[in-house]
């Protein structure tokens, strides 16, 4: 078992050998979270907004907000499980409609939607649930959608060493729908592709067709 921190120098999972199922424990706390300081800051914010944090319903709000925000920026640990691709499966593997929820780093409001994540296998296959786990690994952070998309694709390319990777994310940003321009229902689509899915026209087209779902 090895620990991997996504932004620094994550442990390498991959490999060219065909060993049996292999698990890499991926852990990633959010360094620098100071809950008591966050609580005090939320109480200050409430006061600055003209609210009295000592009233019955607001009294625990600073703690709740501090804990909620911490939860939303802290990914859960998981095992990244891979299997040898003994049968030489060489077509796309694609998980569609993986739920995505993250926090926009400009307004600290959620953006939510779905990710479609696919890869062209190399020597190893990834446990299917792990595609969703990797999305969460980067979504639980203050994010912009473009960075989230490229981080998921880049991490899979580095750790799975597939022949190609593609990621499409479609999300609604509450900062665009609840407030500001109030463009309710507008969804932002971003993509990132590597390897053959980027370079080979047929693979690229197949990926985007499957990601669209029709
Ligand atoms: N590129 C990108 N922009 C984002 C994302 N999430 C939010 N934004 C945008 O970040 C921008 C911040 O612009 P500002 O003009 O500083 O913020 P603002 O005054 O609140 O802007 P309005 O939302 O237009 O009222 C807005 O246009 C948001 O829509 C994201 O994931 N990617
Ligand atoms: Zn925003």
Automatic annotation (TrEMBL):
One of its GO terms (biological process) is tetrahydrobiopterin biosynthetic process. Pathway: Cofactor biosynthesis; 7,8-dihydroneopterin triphosphate biosynthesis; 7,8-dihydroneopterin triphosphate from GTP: step 1/1. Residues 39-211 form the GTP cyclohydrolase I domain. It catalyses: GTP + H2O = 7,8-dihydroneopterin 3'-triphosphate + formate + H(+). Its EC number is 3.5.4.16. It comes from the Bacteria. One of its GO terms (molecular function) is zinc ion binding. It holds the Pfam family GTP_cyclohydroI. One of its GO terms (cellular component) is cytoplasm. Zn(2+) binds at residues 104, 107, 175. Keywords: GTP-binding, Hydrolase, Metal-binding, Nucleotide-binding, One-carbon metabolism, Zinc. InterPro entries: GTP-CH-I_C/QueF (IPR043133), GTP-CH-I_N (IPR043134), GTP_CycHdrlase_I (IPR001474), GTP_CycHdrlase_I_CS (IPR018234), GTP_CycHdrlase_I_dom (IPR020602). Belongs to the GTP cyclohydrolase I family. Homopolymer. This is GTP cyclohydrolase 1. It comes from Oryzihumus leptocrescens. The gene is folE.
């Amino acid at each position: 078992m090895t620990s991997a921190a996504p932004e620094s120098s994550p442990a390498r999972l991959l490999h060219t050998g065909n060993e049996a199922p292999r698990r890499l424990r991926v852990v990633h706390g959010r360094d620098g979270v100071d809950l008591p300081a966050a609580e005090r800051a939320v109480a200050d914010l409430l006061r600055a907004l003209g609210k009295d944090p000592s009233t019955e319903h607001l009294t625990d709000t600073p703690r709740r907000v501090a804990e909620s925000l911490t939860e939303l920026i802290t990914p859960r640990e998981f095992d990244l499980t891979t299997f040898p691709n003994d049968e030489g499966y060489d077509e796309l593997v694609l998980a569609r409609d993986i739920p995505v929820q993250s926090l926009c780093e400009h307004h600290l409001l959620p953006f939510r939607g779905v990710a479609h994540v696919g890869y062209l296998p190399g020597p190893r296959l990834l446990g299917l649930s792990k595609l969703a786990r990797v999305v969460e690994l980067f979504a639980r952070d203050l994010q912009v959608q473009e960075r989230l998309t490229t981080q998921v694709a880049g991490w899979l390319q580095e750790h799975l060493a597939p022949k190609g990777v593609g990621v499409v994310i479609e999300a609604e940003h509450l900062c665009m729908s609840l407030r500001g321009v109030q463009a309710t229902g507008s969804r932002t689509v971003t993509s990132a592709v590597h390897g053959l899915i980027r370079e080979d026209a047929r693979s690229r087209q197949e990926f985007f067709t499957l990601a669209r779902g029709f």
